[in-house]
Amino acid sequence: MSLKKLFKPKSIAVIGASTNPEKIGHQILKNIIDGGYKGDIYPVHPKADEILDLECHSSVTDIKGKVEMAVIVVPAKIVPSIIEECGKKNVKAAIVISSGFSEVGDKGAKLEKELAETAEEAGVRILGPNCQGINNTVQNVCATWPLTTKKGPISIIAQSGTIGAALECWAEEDNIGISKFAMLGNRADIDETKLLEFFSKDRTTDVIALYLEGVKNGRKFFEVAKEASEKKKIVVLKGGRSEKGAEAVLTHTRSLAGEYKVFKSVCKQAGLILVESINELYDVCKGIAGLPKPKGKNTIILTSSGGSGILAADAAEDLDLNLMDLPEKSIKRLKKKLPSECIIQNPIDLTGSATAEMYDEAIKVLARYKDVHSIVIIVGDPMPGISDVIKERFERLTLVPVMLGGGKEEVEEKKKLQEEGIPVFSTPENAMKALSTL
């Protein structure tokens, strides 16, 4: 059965909708409304007459209209019976937000097994339990929290709601946005492989961010991931790499973390991009989504911070980027255009007295040479006007902006770039990693 009803439902029932604004059942209902969802919304609450100006229903079976997807926020012990009712109502997909299943031990695992069996019998695909829901900005379906609505090219699959939500929020703050988000939870039915397959066929998704703690079916995951990576860039962060981390995974979503060396090898064979931190996961996805693709590996670093230039150079070597020698003619031109204190080699260090005009002059010179495939622009000081310099040439060159240590001026210049959808990086290392994936 397709996952279309989960992400593109024509009607939604929120079972366990609450009149209390502090409860998740209220917040999800409000986010669906405030997110601009166009279909029918049915709050289900046995005692309330209405919530948020919508008529309430005592159960899903009492709803007169058709229900394509349900969001379930009720105590764990009654979830199987609710799924049974959903089956009778011909609901095709359900998100089980409720916790209290396999993550709490054997008793919960037994209940989760009952839930999975009930869902299969009822013909209802379920995401979760113990999950944070989904977001589809393209269809205005924010059946999760917090509310994010900025449309963009990144889709997220996460085994942690907080990590997934952080990626969503960062993408919205940076004016990049997301296409879709799904929090896996305990994976009683829909798992990472099914979502990866679905997202790989999604026309509004360019890059998939994947946070995993364990893989449910290793061989199937490898087969699907290999095929999916031919259509989309897939960036993976694995939790539970250490012994203690693997123990924590068991108590989080009851997954087996698995041997990290094996996972790393599988990712490499499948063509996935493996990262080591949540910031790197986001920055690499942001770079893939927003940077023009370079024609090759030849890279020049242009910096006002010697130390940041060194870190970028180290990262370039680790990532197999070619930190090229400057073309002979460019050296003469640069020496003519720039003050004598500038260090004309790669990295080009404009020193602490750098100005936006100096960056502009250097970029104009370097842009003349076809062998220069990308320029990493590191701004390590407050610098009025640098955003205009980058914006002017961003479409014609692969420019990778890095801003750090610039105080309020940095915030303002960064915002000007973000308003144009130009990604700005906060560390030289993550900028180089993003560039290397392109």
UniProtKB/TrEMBL annotation:
<feature type="domain" description="CoA-binding">
    <location>
        <begin position="6"/>
        <end position="101"/>
    </location>
</feature>
<dbReference type="InterPro" id="IPR003781">
    <property type="entry name" value="CoA-bd"/>
</dbReference>
<dbReference type="Pfam" id="PF13380">
    <property type="entry name" value="CoA_binding_2"/>
</dbReference>
<dbReference type="GO" id="GO:0043758">
    <property type="term" value="F:acetate-CoA ligase (ADP-forming) activity"/>
</dbReference>
<dbReference type="Pfam" id="PF13607">
    <property type="entry name" value="Succ_CoA_lig"/>
</dbReference>
<protein>
    <recommendedName>
        <fullName>acetate--CoA ligase (ADP-forming)</fullName>
        <ecNumber>6.2.1.13</ecNumber>
    </recommendedName>
</protein>
<dbReference type="InterPro" id="IPR036291">
    <property type="entry name" value="NAD(P)-bd_dom_sf"/>
</dbReference>
<dbReference type="Pfam" id="PF19045">
    <property type="entry name" value="Ligase_CoA_2"/>
</dbReference>
<dbReference type="InterPro" id="IPR032875">
    <property type="entry name" value="Succ_CoA_lig_flav_dom"/>
</dbReference>
<dbReference type="InterPro" id="IPR016102">
    <property type="entry name" value="Succinyl-CoA_synth-like"/>
</dbReference>
<dbReference type="InterPro" id="IPR043938">
    <property type="entry name" value="Ligase_CoA_dom"/>
</dbReference>
